[in-house]
Amino acid sequence: MPRLKGQVAFVTGAGRGIGQAMALAFAAEGAIVGVADIDGVTAASTVREIGRNSGTARAFPIDVSRRDDVLRAVDQLVSEFGRLDIVANNAIVFRNEPVSEVREDTVEKMISVGLKSIFWTAQAALLHMDPERGGVIINNTSPVADLGVPRAAVYSAIKGGVSSLTRSLAIEFGPRRIRVNAVCPSTVPTPGARELNNNDEALYETRRQRTPLGRLGTPEDIASAAVFLASADASFITAAVLRVDGGATVYGGA
Ligand SMILES: NC(=O)c1ccc[n+]([C@@H]2O[C@H](COP(=O)([O-])OP(=O)(O)OC[C@H]3O[C@@H](n4cnc5c(N)ncnc54)[C@H](O)[C@@H]3O)[C@@H](O)[C@H]2O)c1
């Protein structure tokens, strides 16, 4: 029995990488998926792939940092399919640089996409999630919320914000029966992460060796965790940050 049958999900940054895997996984479990991405071409290709697997999806080529874009897209999704059950906040703009070189427009862009957008999807969730059935919000955070990583100050600040916002939303939305959790992946060689790391295979090998389970994560690993958090199996789980990292984050070896 598909675990999300008849449900409607909205996933940000779902044109590629982890967001795409989440959209595909939600659809494989029976959900209808709104695929939001600033890149309309990749959003459409995720929708086509869901269609090829006999699922249903709609593309929303929007900038998720814009409140109007988000509210309009979710409105449209709900007008067509009648409900909203799952929101996955996944979109990101990756950029690493020393604090001394960080420009105002970089900070503005990264925070708007990676953190501010969560307020707009949360407002859409409040508007459209059924008061009786409730719903689920899943945020995508990172171990850098708690670890110090050189050149990643803006990204760390965003993810620290995402983790704490996950807890705040869980408390505020609990009485509305909306559960709010986060997945926390370690290194996943997605297109965005590969660009950020200049395809540095040596770096990926070092990280693999520091992962007790002996491999890096895949977008599908993270998507499986998101399906679990979205499903009734997680019905008493809220305010959780679920590490999906093969043990890498707590590894204390040399
Ligand atoms: N890849 C990793 O190693 C890793 C590790 C920990 C956490 N994460 C988190 O996972 C999430 C996805 O990362 P990824 O590696 O798949 O990234 P990615 O760069 O491959 O994909 C990000 C997607 O977000 C979209 N996007 C960017 N700006 C947007 C905007 N304004 N509006 C709508 N969409 C926009 C991009 O077009 C892209 O499709 C992020 O939240 C990231 O922080 C990734």
Describe the protein in words.
The chain starts with 7 loop residues before the first strand and ends in a 10-residue tail after the last strand. The longest helix has 25 residues, at 104-128. The chain has a single domain (8-243), classed as Rossmann fold (3-Layer(aba) Sandwich). The mean pLDDT is 97. The chain contains eight helices and seven strands; from the N terminus they run E-H-E-H-E-H-E-H-E-H-E-H-H-H-E. Helix 1 (17-28) links the parallel strand 1 (8-12) and strand 2. It is of the alpha/beta class and 254 residues long. It has helices at residues 17-28, 40-52, 67-81, 104-128, 153-173, 191-196, 201-209, 219-230; strands at residues 8-12, 32-36, 57-60, 86-89, 135-140, 178-185, 241-244. Strands 3-2-1-4-5-6-7 form a seven-stranded parallel beta sheet, sandwiched between helices. It is globular and about 45 Å long. Bound molecules: nicotinamide-adenine-dinucleotide.
Question: Can you summarize this structure?
Answer:
The chain is an alpha/beta fold and 254 residues long. The chain is 44% helix and 14% strand. Nicotinamide-adenine-dinucleotide binds next to helix 1 and helix 6.
